[in-house]
Write a structure and sequence with these properties.
By secondary structure, the protein is an all-alpha fold. Helix content is about 50%, strand content about 0%. The chain is globular, with a radius of gyration of 26 Å.
Length: about 240
């Protein structure tokens, strides 16, 4: 809790600093920059919120566009890094993972989604389609495309329940095998109970960095017990990676 309080305190200090900086910058602007619009008798400044909504060209209230005042070379540099808006909007979006996709990922990581044992990952997954935003064909309702608090919490519950299976079955998990040979997959933890790079890479689906390894190992060591720490580490990494599609 102390770390969380420090994070919250730092966040508020940062927000306060940003607000103070913004206020200082606004006071330094020339009058023409603060109000680039020049009112006339035919097109005066709006005095009510609905007057700022233009009905036609005669009464449209023009707002300053930031890009009009930006260096064109800066715009070009940003486009070169981010790509065109049509591409960057798709790249940075975060749609909810589809229900069937989630099931296939669990299976590929060694989880038995057909497990009927109460509170097993498979049992929770199969009985939580509605909570996970799955489609309701009987009600002609399509699958949700955006994550909600319910879907995020339910997904994390499933990852926590799936963690023991993932750890035990990783050497034989379909998504972790090398050249398809049984038993060729990695171990998630080494003999010293540290997270392995190969194990993390298998779980998240792309090469693990040293930062992944450090965070994973710290989650294990900081828990009240080693066993709980391992479950938390696996579930946290999996949830953080697979929340979005």
């Amino acid at each position: 809790m102390s770390m969380m309080n420090q994070m919250k305190k730092g966040l508020w200090i940062g927000l306060a600093a940003l607000a103070f900086t913004a206020a200082g910058c606004a006071s330094d602007l020339d009058p023409i920059d603060q109000n680039p619009y020049t009112p006339t008798d035919q097109n005066p400044l709006p005095t009510a919120p609905d007057e700022a909504v233009g009905q036609d060209e005669a009464n449209t209230f023009d707002h300053m566009q930031a890009l009009d005042y930006e260096d064109p070379f800066s715009i070009l540099e940003r486009l070169a890094k981010e790509g065109p808006p049509q591409y960057s909007a798709k790249l940075h979006s975060c749609p909810k993972m589809r229900y069937q996709t989630f099931g296939r990922i669990l299976t590929s990581r060694g989880v038995n989604v057909a497990n009927a044992t109460n509170l097993s990952a498979g049992q929770i997954f199969r009985t939580s389609e509605a909570s996970l935003g799955g489609p309701n064909y009987a009600a002609r309702s399509a699958e949700l495309t955006e994550s909600t608090t319910t879907t995020a919490v339910k997904m994390f519950d499933i990852w926590v329940a799936a963690a023991p299976e993932i750890i035990a079955n990783m050497p034989n998990a379909p998504g972790c095998l090398v050249a398809g040979a049984a038993g060729s997959g990695p171990q998630f933890f080494d003999a010293a109970d540290n997270c392995t790079a190969d194990g993390i890479s298998c779980l998240i689906g792309y090469p693990a960095t040293q930062a992944h390894i450090d965070v994973c190992s710290r989650l294990v060591k900081d828990a009240t017990t080693l066993a709980k720490g391992k479950l938390i580490a696996v579930a946290a990494l999996a949830a953080a990676t697979h929340t979005c599609e």
